[in-house]
Amino acid sequence: MWPFTKNSAQTFAPTAADGPWEVKKYNDAGAMLVVRVNMGLKKNGGQLGFHYHVGVVVPFRSPTSNGLPSRLETIELDAIEHLLRERFEGGGSAMLALAITTAGRREFIFYASQDEPAKKIFPSIQKEIGSHQIQILTCPDKAWEIYRRFAV
């Protein structure tokens, strides 16, 4: 998988809750907000024991005039998403719920059964991704408030 590894095979295991996905567009105080929502989580999401929101923020290096990524950077962001899913979802302890793109950044929102495993592996992910400076934030979210904001 360019730009991180030569292996392009899918290495995370999609679950029954992996999709379908919907793309929603909003105007957020004049900025375009594009949200990809994993609608497969809508029915049972909060009941799966994934009570932690794990957000990975990827600031764009050179956003377009509307704050969105260029085509080339979109390819890099797709590779970053694949790597994050591989690392976080690999053991079945997390799942990607949202990908939010706005104002010069993309945030990948995972829900996890615990937040410590994500925090623990994050430094190695940062080292592996040379194209962007990424950040992680975690917080309890038993009610899946962030997800439910967009999965309507």
Structure description:
The chain is an alpha+beta fold. The protein has one domain: Alpha-Beta Plaits (2-Layer Sandwich). 25% of the residues lie in helices and 31% in strands. The protein has helices at residues 71-89, 116-128, 145-150, and strands at residues 21-28, 31-38, 52-59, 94-102, 105-112, 135-140. It has a six-stranded antiparallel sheet. A hairpin with a 2-residue loop joins strand 4 (94-102) and strand 5. Helix 1 (71-89) crosses helix 2 (116-128). The chain is globular and about 40 Å long. The chain starts with 20 loop residues before the first strand and ends with a helix.
Defining traits:
152 residues; alpha+beta; 6 strands; 25% helix; 6-stranded antiparallel sheet
Mean pLDDT: 87
Largest sheet: 6 strands, antiparallel
Q: State the fourth-level CATH superfamily.
A: Histidine kinase CheA-like, P2 response regulator-binding domain
Proportion of beta-strand residues: 25-35%
> What is the end-to-end distance?
33 Å
The CATH class is identified as: Alpha Beta
Give the helix proportion (percent range): 25-40%
Q: Indicate how many domains the architecture comprises.
A: 1
Order of helices and strands: EEEHEEHEH
Tertiary shape: globular
CATH fold-level assignment: Alpha-Beta Plaits
Class of secondary structure makeup: alpha+beta
Say how many strands there are.
Answer: 6
CA-atom Rg in angstroms? 15 Å
Q: Which parts are unreliable, with pLDDT below 50 for 5 consecutive residues or more?
A: 1-14
Neighbour order of strands in the largest sheet: 1-2-4-5-3-6
The CATH architecture assignment turns out to be: 2-Layer Sandwich
Tally of separate helices: 3
